[in-house]
From TrEMBL:
Membrane spanning residue stretches: 26-46, 58-83, 89-110
Name assigned to this protein: GlpM family protein
Keywords attached to this entry: Membrane, Transmembrane, Transmembrane helix
One Pfam family of this chain: GlpM
Amino acid sequence: MALLLKSLIGAAMVILISLLSKSKYYYIAGLAPLFPTFALIAHYSVGSTRSTADLRETILFSGFATLPMISYLVALYCLVGYFRLVPSLLMACIAWGIAAWILVTLWGYAHGH
C-alpha cells in the first residue's frame, strides 16, 4: 500500500509539471520538482526505521545533495546555448552524476562509511 501511495504521489507530480509547462506560468514547472515530495518519503522512511542520529545525518546529506542539482542546472543553462535540447539534457545529467559521485565519495570519507 505504501508503495502504491508513493507511486501515485510521483505520478501526480509528473502531471502537475506537464500541466504547468503548458500554462502561461510555464516557469513554475521548474519549481515543482523541487517540492520535497521525495525528500518527505525518504525522511519518513529513514525516520520511521532508523535512529534519530541516522535521520539527522540523512537530513544533513540532503542539504549537501542540492549541490549536484545546482551542477545540473548550471550545466544545462550553459549547454542549451550551444547544443540541441536532448544532448544538453544528457550532458547536464552527466554533470549531475559526476557531482553526485564526488559528493557520495567525499561524504563516505568524512563519515567513515
